[in-house]
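Thread: Newbie trying to understand structure tokens

Hi all, I'm a second-year student working on a class project, and my supervisor (Dr. K.) asked me to get a predicted structure for one chain before our next meeting. I've only ever worked with sequences, so writing a 3D structure as a token string is new to me. If someone could post the tokens and maybe explain what I'm looking at, I'd be very grateful. Here's the chain:
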Amino acid sequence: MLSTPVIQNLHEHFPEAQIDFLVDEFASDVVAGNPWITEVITFNRESDSSTGTVLQVRKRHYDLVIDLFSNPRSAVIVGLSGARIRVGYPFHWRKYAYNILVPPRGGEVHNVDFNLDAVRRLEIPVHHFRPLFPLNKEATQFASEWIGANNLDGKLIVGMNPSGGWYTKRWGLDHFAHLGDVIAERYHASIVLLWGPGEEEDVRSIQRKMKSSSRVIPRTSLIELGAIIRRCAYVVSNDSGPMHIAASLDVPTLGIFGPTNPYLQGPYGKNHRWIRNEGIECLACNLTSCPIGNICMTQLETSRVIDAFDGLVQESKKQKQSDVNQSQDA
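---
Reply by user tm_fold:
Sure, no problem. This is what the structure looks like when written as tokens:
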């Protein structure tokens, strides 16, 4: 998701070029409908061999290959790609896979800008920064039918996403239930609980804990999830893929952070906010397991997240009014 601005800037500079994108199979929906990509090449990291992927890449005879991950597997693929120009980040031995090295700024800038540094290193102008998550007609229709079947048309919908990859990134289910009840009462909102593979029981648990009514979305593809998110007025989410999808779709988003750094991985764009427990010294530790009880999340009080959500709503209303005023002045 956060690499899609790279594609748009490359397309603008090389409008006649074939631009292909190699991606994990599970995430292919993120780029499947991207208008600047010629072909999406997928691989399954559990079943596909690196040798097979290298052969797929080599037979295409690329002039330029950019490695935005620069992990051991991607470095091998790029190093053996046969491309004349190979761009990547000089992490350990992987630097030998590339002939153009990008100075890494991983601890200094947002991931969007970290990725765009590869474009800048090629001396290509960067004019586009916003991540793109394209929705197709089928997914949009799927979302519309589900919204209609659940009597949500015309309602103020707030999506809540308790997922987070690592357990250390997940705010508590009890907290989400309390938050949902407050939002539902204060804003007369309909709460929609978002989930992905292996997460349904979490949202069912939140639904049982809530005093207000809520809806659990059905099992979806990634692009169908995005289409439902697009129908939300606001989204509250742990640091996760759905958080970035919501932000890319211009849905005002509140990110909840602890072990990751919102300055580097937060929802990208002006209509979004994030909250974390600023009193914890070990914030942004990037640990996938916590030796001290994950206190950055367990001790983040619901009242603070509610205050942050209220701020998001007020900021969003101001932005909408500003957009209206500018439209009238034009």
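A couple of things are worth pointing out once you decode it. Residues 170 and 210 are 18 Å apart (CA to CA). The domain at 4-121 is CATH 3.40.50.2000 (Rossmann fold). Feel free to ask follow-ups in this thread.
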